[in-house]
Every structure is written in structure tokens, then in C-alpha cells.
Records
---
Amino acid sequence: MRSRRHLHTALGSLLALFLTLLTCAARADDAPPAPGVPPPPVPAVARTWPVGSHPLVLRGWEPPATLYARGHRGVDLSTPANAPVRAVAPGRVSFAGRVAGRGVVAVELTGTDLRTTYEPVTASVKKGDEVEAGDVVGTVELTGSHCGATSCVHWGLLRGEMYLDPLGLLPPWLLNRGPSRLLPVLSF
Ligand SMILES: [Zn+2]
């Protein structure tokens, strides 16, 4: 009997501890986000790739260790020069112009706190324009990319000043369809 009572007491203590933890978790939800709390995930709002139907990713996203550390703050998509560049989701153009000699278009995505950037791109839109998914925002410039001899579009995604992986915007049906992203070995 005594051992059973002890067991009950122990179970009661565990239950109390569990309820306390639950209460703390609920309180934590109400509190403003503390430093170090992971940011909300990137919503898969894109309805098209910026270029082509499924471009080759020449270089993926390499998050920098700190805000100013080295890394690759976006993805490089293989595309011919002068190809049209499309808004991946509805939004408003927040920048269309040149930065350090490169054409840059930035679009704030409707219903999110995110903005995408495309470069090097000669803009065919201007700041303040509303765009739908698939609307052409400019054309790929021949020079100014960091893909060497190959022309490419550097596609970026930002929440405030924090860079994120733009591929996170693509729903699985866009990310996984079409030609394989692996280069065929026999073509060399
Ligand atoms: Zn790049």
C-alpha cells in the first residue's frame, strides 16, 4: 500500500510539473519574441520561378555566420542574357534602379514581411508598381552577375536586413518539377 501511495505522490508531482511547463509554454507564446528565437518560416507563396520554368541553380544559398560575414546571400539561376525576369509572387516594387553599376529590382511580397531581389536586371517596372506572380519586372543583363562567363540571375530574399533562402518561397510542385538540377555526367 505504502509503495502505491508513493507512486501516486510521484505521479501527482509529475503531473504538477507537466502543468507548470504547459503554463510556462503558453506564457512564452504571449511574450514578444526573445533574442535567439528562430524567425517564422518562409511561406511558399511563389507561383513561378524568376526565370525559365526550372532553371539550373548554379550556386545555392550559403548563409553567412554573421550579418557581415562571407556567404552567398541568395541563389544564382542560370539564364540567358536578355531573358525576362518575373515576379514570383504578388507584391509591390520597392526598388528598381542601379546599385554599384548593376540593375536591381526588389519586390515586397503581399501579405508577408519579405522582399525578393533580382539582379543584374534592367528594370521594366518602377518603384511603387503593383505586380502579380509571373509579371515581367525586367530583363537579365549580360554583365554584372557573379557567375563568371555564364549569365545568371542572383535571386535574394530578405526579412528586414536578414537574408533568407529564396528557394523556401517555392512550393514543392515548383521546386521539384521539370528537368533535374543535376548536371548530366556524360555531357562532359
Ligand atoms: Zn549570387
---
Amino acid sequence: MKPLNIGVIGYGFMGRAHSNAFRKVGNFFPLDRKLVLKAACGRDAAKTKAFADTWGYESTTSDWKELIARDDIDLIDIAAPNNVHAEIAIAAAKGGKMILCEKPLAMNPAEAVKMVAAVEKAKVANMVWYNYRRIPAVTLAKELIDAGRLGKIFHYRAKFLQDWTINADVPQGGAGTWRLDASVAGSGVTGDLLAHCIDTALWLNGGIDSVTAMTETFVKERKHALSGKKQKVLIDDASAFLARFSNGSLATFEATRYARGHKALYTFEINGEHGSLCWDLHDLHRLQFFDHRDAGNVRGWRSIHVSDGDQPYMKHWWVPGLQIGYEHSFVHQVADFVAGLSNGQPAAPTFRDGLATDYVTDAVLKSAKSRRWQNVKSARSK
Ligand SMILES: NC(=O)c1ccc[n+]([C@@H]2O[C@H](COP(=O)([O-])OP(=O)(O)OC[C@H]3O[C@@H](n4cnc5c(N)ncnc54)[C@H](O)[C@@H]3O)[C@@H](O)[C@H]2O)c1
């Protein structure tokens, strides 16, 4: 089998999630490429070495440009914070590398547009790690919608709730808390959490035309972990918006890091003419489905335990009745990406799909400032 040599940048949360997927995928999915963990890159040499030893990377570097210059690396995997996505991806595209990039694609649409142009000009395979699409219950939701089981869709409702920044002593910036530093994260929960909800929504329910939003920064100043100085907080702590989809449906989206008791509660509900769907990250292997066309005497919400071989991705895992979890969504994403290299159908979301989400988050942030409805740009028009 032809090798697919991978260089990963970042050894944190996502560096681990991706490495786990690269290692596992070939054991469960029939691939026509052999994934090789060629090199790991991170800023701290000792931590990068420890990471490489744990996951089996052949070599390490603290300079990502070295990875791109290497002839024996085919694919650059960007698992570093948002402020470095554009520079690395554009250089990697110029170097002719395939690219997997973490979400959000970029700090803002201007950067994202350049990234899309770079990968499309270089004709290199590219994908954004919006992994929730490939949780089998979410993929099943897509199949049911595409098969017309909901009919015309009226409502889309999504939430992503956390509670880890309520304490005003949590710093901004630095390892672990870069998400609170706007110069590294770009935005707060809008780009971090709502971006996931938006990507899923665009995939399930089509384009969003316009939004009206509100955001809040509850803790106005925080110490910076690197400088030790108190600085104004420039990210949004909470963000909520109304949206109008191109198909005529109405939506509400909400994300916050101030919902006490919630660690990572991503939920969505979709209501259509014939039925409704509900999904909840805390019960990720289940899809709730209501079909109004069922016979009246048995009509009601079904809780579908997504574990059967007939259901998305599940035939590759255990036996019916045994469920899988969060990490497997990354395995599925790699499996689809590798399949797309040879079957002529590049796996989504591509960078252009990532740009579509960035256009929505940008419109949300603009609307929150202007307090007016904001039209969302189309990522499809070149
Ligand atoms: N798909 C998802 O569900 C999901 C979940 C979490 C994070 N993310 C995204 O993944 C990315 C990384 O987040 P994380 O939670 O893994 O962060 P993290 O803080 O756990 O790890 C970040 C890593 O990037 C490295 N890094 C930072 N700047 C670098 C540079 N210039 N060169 C080389 N390495 C550098 C750090 O050393 C660290 O290893 C972000 O874009 C984030 O939004 C996505």
C-alpha cells in the first residue's frame, strides 16, 4: 500500500484526538493508503518528544516550516490554535501538501478566503475537522433529512453550553487558556462553540441568509497568563443569534461558557412538517425521532440507539447494541478523507465549507455590534 506520510502540528487536545484516529483507522476501515506518523511539531521540544513517543511519531521538530519543507511528508495536520491556521495552511498548500485543519478555519473570513484560494490553486486535498458531522447519530439525522422524512423544515435549534470560565481568576492567554485571548482565538464562544453548531446546521439544513445576534463578555478584565498583567477581555463569553435559512426555516443558536453545570452540552432539534429530530452530545449514540406519519396508536418519540450495521459507520465497529463514542468521529473523518483521495469525491467539510461557517460567525459578531440584522455572505460565489 502506498504510504500517506503525516506531519502533525500541535500536541494538545486535538493533537491527541487526531493521532488516535490516524493510528486506529486502518484497523477498522479498509483503506488503500497506509497512514504513517512521520513527524510531530510543537513549541516545547521535550513535550513534543514525549508526545511523539506516546503516539509513535518517527521524528520531532519545533519549527512547522521544517515539516512543510520535507519531501517525505504528504499531509500537514494543523492541530494548533486558530491564530496560526492561515499561515501554516497557506505555506503547506504552496508546498503541495494535503491539509487537515482544525476549526474554526481562520481568525476571520479575510484569512479564510486566502486559505481557500491557496488550496484550490495548489489543487491539494483539504478538510476542516468539524468532527460532529461524523457521529453516527448525527450522520443518521442527515440521511433522514435527505430522504425527506421530516418534509419541509420549519425550525432549527442548537445550543452549546459550558461553564469553565465563570471564575474571574481564570486567566486569558497561554497554554490551556488561549481561547480567552482574542489575538489567538479570534473570537470567543462564537468561533469556538457556535462554529460547530453552524457547521452541522449548514450541512443538515442548507445555507443561512441572515442573522441577528447578541453577545456578552461577563468578565471584562482578566490577567494575561504570559504577561501577568490585567488586560481587557476581547472575546465573547456568551453568544446567541436568530437566523433565517435559505429554505425558509427559522433558527435559534446559543453558546456560552457561563451555564453552570454544563461541561460540553451540544444539542440540536429540528422540526419539520412530517417529523422532528433531536440530538444531544451527552447521549451521542442516540437519535430522537418523531414521525407524524406513524400509525396513531404507536405514534411517539423513538429513541434510536445508533449501533446497528445498517446505521452510518457502525458496520465497521462491534456488534449491534454496542455503542461507540466521541473519539470515533475523528476516525470516521480520516476514513472518509482517505477514501476521498481515490474515489474522486473529496470528503467534506472542505476549506470552502469552513469559509461558509466563518462567514456566519463573522455576521453574528457584526450583528452583535451593530444590533441589526446582518446578511451572510455566500462561500460558493467565487
Ligand atoms: N474539532 C473539535 O472538536 C475541537 C476541539 C478542541 C479544539 N479544537 C481546535 O483545535 C485547535 C487546537 O486546540 P486544542 O484544544 O488542541 O489546543 P491545545 O491548547 O490543547 O493544544 C495546542 C497545541 O498547539 C501548539 N502550538 C501553538 N502554537 C504553535 C506554533 N506556532 N507552532 C507549533 N505548535 C504550536 C501548542 O504547543 C499545543 O501543542 C484549535 O483551533 C481549536 O479551536 C477543535
